[in-house]
Design a protein that fits this description.
Helix content is 30%, strand content 24%. The protein is of the alpha/beta class and 405 residues long. The protein folds into three domains: 244 residues, Metallo-dependent phosphatases (Purple Acid Phosphatase, chain A, domain 2, 4-Layer Sandwich), CATH 3.60.21.10; 89 residues, no CATH class; 48 residues. A six-stranded mixed sheet has the order 4-3-2-1-11-12, with helices on one face. Strands 5-6-7-8-10-9 form a six-stranded mixed sheet. Strand 14, helix 5 and strand 15 form a beta-alpha-beta unit. The longest helix is centred in the first third of the chain and has 24 residues. The chain binds manganese (II) ion. Manganese (II) ion binds next to loops.
Length: 405
């Protein structure tokens, strides 16, 4: 039976600057800065150990269009290792490392096949006589907004057909709408596998045929949570097998602690409780960056002081750990132990206040002086709708607290 195996990865974003995280202790920041390289190393290790036919990388190999020398050198080192093991690499460049940028070019070994700016077909043959056609194109500029899917035309004469595409599955608004496509359009091509890139969240859009976003290989900020990696794929006859391979060296995670259900009476108790949460999130040999939310914290607690001191305790005990769980933030949600109706019956003032809060729809206007501040605006991302409503809820709680105490 005709058979091939390969690894499909995407969005390596090698040498991501991890901006906005410079406040971390040096050792932790260094670990993060190395993380994209270490994650990629795990992938090439797997390719060698499993003796795959080839590795596919579906765009955004480099984070910056200048393709830092550091990133290219480290990437080439991995390509050389694969070359020695006779493993081919098929790659396309995406919106981050598009061909229009300017960089100092390091030559890659002969096993690395880079698709150019028009969809082209490359052929791979195994020694057992199985043949594969691979289709793909690289971004010539950052913003490729045109539909490119019609340029993929099946060329007969191979046992397997694999489409490689960096683009947006239409309807996904979290990522730039580059080279958009509908799933139906991919399926109509009658390929055996679609190796997608661009969306950083791992998603299998279809299983027959397999249409796969492996996601990025290493989370780069608090919104890219969980273990990330690549897929080991085997195509045998008409059967496709997918196996996820974890690759991240640093994992971003979230934890919630419900104080209404905990026995923590003192600060010491709370520290102990949080330490247990840290242990639950420790992954041997890996690093974790954790955001903790304490829910239902009682009304009387001095929340600012609590969060600050707790954070210090939790961070201090992790400083020298190899497999650290670094608490990046402690979010405190107070217990709502007042209800609107009761307050309204106490004074008309509260009815009016709640009315204003419910009708309020100008978070952006209120925050505009912050967002136009020359120093602050560089670090701020636009608030999403749900972040805005969380902020309004928090403000309500603060107001009631100040008014009622
Ligand atoms: Mn990307």
């Amino acid at each position: 039976m005709k058979k091939i195996t390969f690894i499909h990865a995407a969005d390596l974003h090698l040498d991501s600057p991890m901006s906005g995280l410079k406040h971390l202790p040096e050792a932790i920041f260094d670990r993060l800065q190395e993380s994209t390289f270490r994650a990629f190393r795990k992938i090439t290790d797997e390719a060698i150990n499993r003796q795959v036919d080839f590795l596919i990388i579906s765009g955004d190999i480099f984070d910056g269009e200048d393709r830092s020398i550091r990133a290219q050198t480290r990437f080439r080192k991995e390509m050389d290792r694969l070359f020695k093991h006779d493993i081919q690499v098929y790659l396309i460049h995406g919106n981050h490392d598009h061909l229009g940028g300017s960089w100092v070019e390091l030559n890659m070994p002969a096993n690395v096949h880079i698709f150019r700016d028009n969809v082209e077909v490359l052929t791979y043959n195994t020694s057992e006589g199985t043949s594969v056609h691979l289709y793909g194109f690289s971004y010539v500029k950052k913003h490729v907004l045109e539909r490119r899917i019609n340029d993929y035309v099946k060329k007969t004469g191979a046992d397997f057909h694999i489409g490689i595409l960096h683009g947006n599955h239409e309807g996904n608004s979290d990522h730039g709408n580059y080279a958009p496509f509908h799933l139906r359009e991919l399926i109509e091509k009658e390929f055996d596998y679609w190796a997608l890139g661009h969306i950083h969240k791992r998603t299998v859009l279809s299983e027959m045929p397999a249409v796969v976003y492996p996601g990025n290989i290493q989370g780069r900020h608090k919104k890219e949570t969980g273990m990330k990696g690549c897929y080991f794929v085997s195509l045998a006859g008409t059967e496709t097998k997918l196996e996820f391979i974890p690759a991240s060296d640093v994992i971003w995670e979230k934890a919630e602690l419900d104080m209404a259900r905990s026995e923590a009476a003192t600060f010491g108790d709370l520290c102990k409780l949080c330490s247990m949460v840290l242990e639950d999130h420790r992954h041997e040999g890996l690093a974790t960056i954790l955001q903790i939310t304490l829910k239902n914290v009682s009304f009387e607690t001095q929340t600012n002081v609590l969060a600050e001191e707790l954070l210090e305790v939790l961070q201090e005990q992790e400083r020298d750990e190899e497999s650290f769980v670094w608490t990046a933030s402690i979010q405190i949600e107070e217990r709502i132990d007042w209800d609107r109706d009761r307050l309204k019956s106490e004074a008309d003032f509260y009815s009016e206040l709640f009315n204003i809060i419910d009708k309020y729809d100008d978070a952006e206007g209120t925050l505009s002086s912050l967002y136009s501040h020359p120093a602050a605006r560089k670090y701020l991302e636009r608030l999403t709708k749900s972040e805005q409503s969380a902020l309004i809820k928090e403000s309500e709680q603060l107001l009631i607290r100040l008014l009622y105490q």
